[in-house]
Every structure is written in C-alpha cells, then in structure tokens.
Batch of 2 targets.
Target 1
Amino acid sequence: MKIEVPKKVQTIIRTLQEHGYDAYAVGGCVRDSLLFRSPADWDITTSAKPLEVKEIFKRTVDTGLQHGTVTVLIEKEGFEVTTYRIDGEYEDSRHPKEVIFTGNLEEDLKRRDFTINAMAYNDAVGLVDVFGGRQDLQDKIVRCVGNPQERFTEDALRILRAVRFSAQLGFFIEEKTKEAAKVLAPTLKNISAERIQTELLKLLVSKNPHYLKTAWELGITKIVLPEFDVLMETSMGEKTLKAFAYTSADKAERLAVLFANMEKTPEKSRDLAQKILRRLRFDNDTINKVSELVFWHTCPWECTKKAVRIVLSQCTPALFPVLLNVHRAELLAEEKPDKENLEFLEKSGEFYREIMEKKECISIKMLAVSGKDFIEMGIEPGKKIGELLSSCLALVLENPEKNTREYLLSYITKN
C-alpha cells in the first residue's frame, strides 16, 4: 500500500538514503495515514547517528541528542529525525538508564508502545509492519508490542495512553494489554502531573470521552483522578459519563461536565475543580474558565432578559453559551429530560444573543459614563466613584434604554 508522504518528509528520507543510510516515516503518522487521517506530525527514523544527521543537513536543532533526536529544518518547518535505538533498563517507570543506537529498524520498532504505532514506511520499501499493526488497525485493537508488562514497566504513562488511543480511535484494548494495565496502574504515581494532564485531556476531548470509565475499571483514575472514583460510587458517576455524549469537544466544556457534580453544591464543586486542575498543572486560563462554568452550571436565574443581563454582568459573557451547553448535557443525561428546563435554556440562549447583538450594557466599562465624568462633577476620586458606577450599572441592567450619558448624569445628580 502506498502512503502519501509530504514532499519535505520525502526530501529528508531521500537525502539520508543518498548518503547511505536507511530512513522511514514512523509511528503515528503511518498509523493515521493508514486510517486515511491527516497526521498532525511526521516523524522520521534512521540508521544515521545524530551527528551524522547534523552533518548531512545544514539547518538542525539539537532536540535530544542523548536520545538520538535531531530536528531538521526545511523552510522553517521542523521534522524530528531519530536514530534507531534500543532502550536500556528502566528504573523509574519513565527513563531508561541508557540508550543504545542500533542499525536495525526492527530493534527500534520493538521498543515502541503499541503495534499500531510501531510501523514504518518509505516509498522504496513500502510498509514495514513487523508486529501486525495494520491488522490491529483493521480489527480496531490497541495492543502492546511484545510483552505488555514490559512495555508498561518501561513507561507507565503508556497505561493511560492505551485508554487514550482507545477513546480517540474507538478501538478495544486487547485483553493481555488490559490485564497488564490493571496490574501496573499504581505505577502511574511515578509520572509527572504534566504528562498525566496531556493524556487525560486528549481522552476527554476525544470522540469517546465516556471511555474514562475504562480508565476507572482498570484502576487508572484511582491514581491520577481519585475524585472520579468517589463520583463513580454515586449515581452521578454514570450520569456524568452519559452527559459527555451531549457536549462539544471543547476542553473547558468537557472538564466542567466532569467536575460539576463532584460535590453537593456548586461552590464546593468549583473549589474541588480548582484543586484538581492545579494538581494536574492546568494553565490559569483553563482553571478560571472551568471554575466559572462549574459554579454557574445549574443556571440559577429566572427566565427573563433582565436576569440574563445580571448574570452576564457577573460572569464571563463569552462563556455563557458553554454554560448553557453544560447544563443541557446534564439534563439530557437524565432518564426523562425535563422539557421545561430545556425550554428555559433555549430561551436564555435567545436572550443572550439579543443582548449581545444589541450591545446592551452588562458591565461598568459599557456604561455611557465613566469615573472621569463624576470627578468633573466635583466628586472626590475614591470609593464613592466606584459606588456610583455600580449604582448606574444596576439601573441599566434593569432598563438598558437608560444607558445614556445625559440620563445617568441626571440620575447621579438627583441621587
């Protein structure tokens, strides 16, 4: 089978071959190509040593020479080129004691995690598939290369990656691979929070976020997300998994659904969400967005345009549609979704769109007056100015048409 390899990748492979070395596209790019998907990255493996790669190509970056990786730059685009290698003994479920370069492609493929990621390709030789990766793609199976206990012992993150690939591709995890994952799941405690976060997030924004249940069944979440195990002891666990089906693949939305009901109140759920997200080293922007969504997820306002304006003045307006999606997903996860509540969400969405289209005032910044206007009226700068602006905002949230400079100055003068 011929794979369409990008010209720049072909150039690197061909150049290495012209200098007497083997070279192949390898790993995920081959897998995705066989699945007729567009690969995000193209990695290249070669028999050339790192310094030999650097000698052949004019523009390179020393990405990880000790592990055999050099980034080759072609027209400002970088491609990782890694020497065939054999990993030595692993001590910490993550790093090998040593890396031994080899001239044997099969030895290099043997150290990779799953059969579907252990295939190589170039136009001259075609597909190199020593471990049955193509068949596993056809059978929709995630299977470790060789002995699964050895693969998971080498890098414990592979245990979570097995579930992540399963979720992304909609594949089953092969039985021996699953058994080894369950036995070795506790070793995930040796993996950094950043690496756990990356895999967990990829799982959650995949086409099958409910495969998080597989991670729970294998004892993975007990180590990386113990709060989810507590949730699964209640009826809210299954409901949360079901709610994922009604969400978009937006990370804040999926994370909000995950955390929304981990505690009995929105306030406590928000606080727990912040604690977990910080532990998993999420960025502040994500923490803030998810916290806000979790806090407001029950949509505790009346179905009036005024009520929506007030809520928008207290939360981030751009998050409001996501907030509605989170609550809608929860409602649809019920055995008998409440039609009245669904209509409430629909109407709230309409109010939101009208408010935003008409640019109705929902913040102090949008007022027709500013603190400067009050200072010019002779009011001393300080706390009083803030109180007056808040009073004006309360007025126009009730009556948007009163957001004019003339009216608000008159209002302040009279009061």
Note: The longest strand covers residues 77-83.
Target 2
Amino acid sequence: MLLKELLHAIPVTDYRGSLETEVSSLCLDSRKAVEGSAFVAVRGHQTDGHLFVGKAIELGASVVVVEELPEELDEKVVYVVVGDSAYALGVMASTFYGNPSSKLKLVGVTGTNGKTTVATLLFNLFSKLGFHVGLLSTVQNQIGDRVVEATHTTPDPISLNSLLKDMVEDGCDYCFMEVSSHAVVQQRIAGLKFAGGIFTNITHDHLDFHGTFANYIKAKKKFFDDLDRYAFALTNIDDKNGLVMLQNTFAHKKTYGLHQMADFKAKILESHFDGMLLQVDGQEVWVKLVGDFNAYNLLAVYGAAILLEQETMKVLMALSEISGAEGRFETMKSSTGVVAIVDYAHTPDAVENVLETIGDLRKPGQQILTVLGCGGDRDKTKRPEMAEVAARLSDKVVLTSDNPRTEDPGTIIREMEVGIPSDKRKNVFSITDRREAIRAAFHLAQPGDVILVAGKGHEKYQDVNGVKNHFDDKEELIKIFNEHN
C-alpha cells in the first residue's frame, strides 16, 4: 500500500521524503521491522518508541512515523510527523487491513467488572442464533470455532485489525470485544467503527495506570464519546456513573437495570448455585448463571441483542441454554459435599459481589472460606480493601499469592493484612504458596461449606519474576477433590 493512502485520514504536520513510497507492513515494535516496513514510534507507559527509530531503520524500515523528527535523518527513509502517533497507528492499521471493522458489526464492552462475561455471552448467544461470530476477550480470541490465544484484554492496533480482517475473510457477521480503559487511553481502538458500546459498571481499579478515579471514568467515557450516530450506547443505569457515560455521545442512548426505570429491565425470581430464574421484560427465563452481577451481565447481553435487531423470544430461549466465560463463578463439588467456586474477581467490588452472591445462596450452617491474593506491580491501594471485604463476608480467609510478578509475595500479603479488622484476625491465615493455600482451605472446610478461590479465574499460570509457571486454580481443586473421593 502507498504511504499516502495510509495517511489519508491522519493530520500530518510535516514529512521528509516521498509519500508515494510503498509500505509492506506496519510495526509498533522496532524488532519486528523488515524491509519496507512503516515503524510507528509510540510513547508508551513504560517505553518511548522514539528511542528505537534507529533500530527499526537498521532492520529495514523505509518509513518512520514520529511526533518529533530525530536530530539525524537518513536520506533513504521517509519521515512523517504527526501530533499523536498512537492515534495515527490505530487509523493506519485500520486502513492497512482494509477497514475490517466497517465490514462486520463490532460491539465493544467496557467497565471494571463483567467485560469478559458479557462479551463471551454475546459470542455464545449469537453463535446459538446461527451467526458466524468473532470474539476478542481477556480469556481468548475466537474466529468462529477457531481459538486464537489472547495476550491482552484489548490487543495492539496492528494485531487487532489483523484479527478483524481474518474474521471478515472467515465470514463473521459480528465481533464482540472487550474494550479496556488502557486501550482507550493508548488509542488502541482508534480508527475502528463500532456498531455499539456497552457499559457494565465502574469501581476501584487500575489507579496505578490512570492516577485518579476521575481519569479512570474519563477513559471509559471517551469510548462512548467517540461512538457515531449510527451506533447504540447501552449503559447500566443502576451504576452511579452509568448515565455519565452517555452525556456526550452521538449514539442511540439506551439503559438497562434491575432497580431503576430502564429500557431493558430484569428481576431475579429464584437463585440457586446452579442457576437462577429471571423475569426479563416481563418474560420468565431460567439461566445457568447466578448472582446479581450476572443478572446485570445477562440483561446487558439481552439489551444488546435486541438493539442488534434480534427477536425477543429467540434471544431468551438461547440465553437459557448458554454458559458464561471460563473462570467466572465456575462451580464444582467434591464427593464430601464441599462446593468450590473459581472466580476472576480481583477488585474490592468484584470480590464483594461474588461473596455476597455466595452468602445469599448458602444454607444455614454452611461456612464460606475464601482464598485470596493480590497481583504484584499493580495498584497497591486495593490490597487492604480486598482483604477487608474477604474478612467481612467470609467465615475464614486464606491470604496467598496471586501473580507476584517482580514483588515479594510476603510483602504483598502483609499489605493485605493491614485491611483485616482486629476482630476477624483469628480467622485469617496467610500462606504464601497458592497451592498450599487452596489445600489448607479444603482441610478447613466441613461438608457443605463453600470455598471461593478468587483472583486468577481462567489463568493457567502464575507470574513470578517474569516467568509464567503453569498454575490452574481449577486443576488444583480437582486434584484435591480426587484425593478425597
């Protein structure tokens, strides 16, 4: 593709060389530059791509897109100066891959909790309705039945548009994707055309990246601000920031909720560990998910399906047959009657939602035991809060490692312990080894008790000092259950 075609929708402030240059590929990582590449120098959270311009040229890049020109210019290279190279990369990637997001219906899901479940449920629902569908999620990316490994909640713009192009070529009618706040700020979704956006909720998370809660809200809101008038914007009206998301959007504004007046309304009629009976817009439907948070997730999915012009009864029938995302309130039961739940909950609010749901479902005499850790190199302020929630809503708590990354696991646990109220300390145990912590919770449990293993959910690894060692919470529980058959 000619460089001038790639730049047609981008404000260029200056350039050196010929815009008639042929571009063979785009790259964000200088190490992936090859002969004829256009390297886009993006200023990241940890590194600045401008430092690697020389490396990209050395490997064959013939075009470099920057926010400021290097002091020394190579006469064989075309230099393009833009105001925001991250934005330029998004738009260029979309153009390079033939604007794939305009050739299917792309729906984005954003919020602190529920993104993966909502996106996955939409994928499962529309597949059940007979459509060929794509999924971009934290757990995995899918093109129909084909699974593509996911490394980020929202991929970089080049990977993202490449995946969307593959979906279009494979005949996908829809794609449902998680849109993280990082992705919005970092312009990873720049240049994409969305058919709709869904807001789940917003609570304390990612303040290590955004700095303040106000900035976090602003990042989520920008996704809706950028939707066009042909799209829909569907928000959770029961969330106190739900309507904030709709303030400046040109999209069709719609709401869903369990408590306030909304365009799409639901009520929980019955709830059990294996599912719940919902009344959705006046119709009763049994679903395989449980808890208020999942009632919201299902309602968001239902509302989006109706806004995508699907028939109400077909949608409700399909919703009664589908399951949620891996590692989201996944339940298993031992032969001794101990119930174990694996959930990705890794924020104070998510832990509270899951534990309140378990509390509502348990029978008199059933204890709740929670295994909980906090990730290293992430927002430290939520550590004592998560521990406090766990101690308040559980009968016993085992604090342990999550993904310590480059931090000392013992230090993380001590920072969590600060949040434990003094009257709860006798029921809180600290075991650094996660495998041993899960085993300890099982041995503390009596028949009929409920163990929540929170924080890692679908993850099949534990990140310790940059090494991802195999570790699967579900696998560990199954081993323990089998030993005690």
Note: The radius of gyration is 24 Å.
